[in-house]
């Protein structure tokens, strides 16, 4: 009986230490930009001509030393002016659009912490993946399309009418995947930089499909940097040097 009691006391002590030594939550903010990648971007890496700032907020629950669950909220926009795009593909046709994005997502974070006892890594790389929804407000502009540049029997005018009649989406499903690196400034404050690629389920992020390239879906990605604040017992406090 005595060995069993000692064993149970040891388990209770280990569990208590794990709970008190773990920085349970982290809150933070980011600033960066979204980059549109779709039918109207002349380059494979997307359109960089009219980048706009993006603001993000997040809350993360540290599940253990190596994993966390993070909820994200982003506000931003993507836009393209076809006249500024340099491409020989002919897809641009002087089309333009602006799409405002409010994105909610939930991702699983894999942290690559130092595993040696008593040896904490200040610089921690991480990767993440998850799912979310983007609420979009799409404004498109066909007005600068010059039909005289195309043959009379060209299909683009008909395709434009098809796109005009298409009801634009208000929400998109997104699959965010990304990677980043975090630097621990103190036991409470950390800085980070990351990149996130978003796959979507629509070809109408830019408001066009039939008039450009209906065979591929639109996507967007973002780069950002920010700060995080560790929270313990519902208040900001000094976290241990070693996160379990």
What does the model show?
It is built from two helices and nine strands. It has 244 residues and is mainly beta. Strands 1-2-3-4-5-6-7-8 form an eight-stranded antiparallel β-barrel. The protein is elongated and about 70 Å long.
Give the proportion of residues in helices: 10-25%
Mean pLDDT: 82
| Count of runs of 4 or more consecutive helical residues | 2
Order of helices and strands: HEEEEEHEEEE
- Main beta-sheet strand count, sense and barrel state: 8 strands, antiparallel, barrel
Radius of gyration computed on alpha carbons: 24 Å
Uncertain runs are: 1-22, 233-244
Using DSSP, what is the number of strands?
9
**Which word captures the global form?**
elongated
Can you list the strand order of the major beta sheet? 1-2-3-4-5-6-7-8
Q: What is the percentage of strand-forming residues?
A: over 45%
Q: From the helix content, strand content and strand pairing, which structural class follows?
A: mainly beta
In angstroms, what separates the terminal alpha carbons?
31 Å
């Amino acid at each position: 009986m005595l060995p069993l009691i000692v064993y149970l006391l040891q388990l209770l002590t280990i569990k208590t230490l794990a709970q008190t030594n773990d920085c349970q939550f982290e809150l933070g903010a980011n600033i960066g930009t979204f980059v549109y990648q779709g039918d109207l971007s002349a380059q494979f890496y997307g359109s960089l001509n009219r980048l706009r700032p993006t603001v993000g907020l997040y809350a993360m629950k540290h599940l253990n030393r190596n994993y966390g669950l993070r909820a994200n909220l982003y506000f931003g926009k993507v836009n393209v002016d076809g006249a500024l795009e340099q491409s020989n593909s002919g897809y641009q046709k002087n089309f333009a659009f602006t799409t405002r994005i409010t994105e909610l997502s939930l991702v699983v974070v894999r942290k690559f912490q130092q595993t040696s006892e008593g040896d904490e890594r200040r610089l921690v790389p991480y990767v993440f993946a998850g799912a979310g929804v983007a609420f979009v407000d799409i404004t498109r502009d066909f007005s600068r399309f010059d039909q005289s540049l195309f043959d009379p029997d060209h299909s683009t005018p008909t395709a434009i009418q098809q796109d005009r009649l298409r009801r634009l989406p208000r929400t998109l499903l997104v699959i965010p995947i990304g990677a980043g690196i975090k630097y621990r400034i103190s036991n409470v404050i950390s800085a980070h930089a990351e990149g996130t690629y978003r796959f979507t389920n629509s070809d109408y992020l830019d408001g066009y499909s039939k008039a450009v390239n209906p065979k591929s879906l639109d996507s967007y990605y973002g780069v950002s940097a920010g700060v995080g604040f560790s929270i313990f017992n519902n208040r900001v406090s000094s976290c241990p040097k070693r996160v379990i």
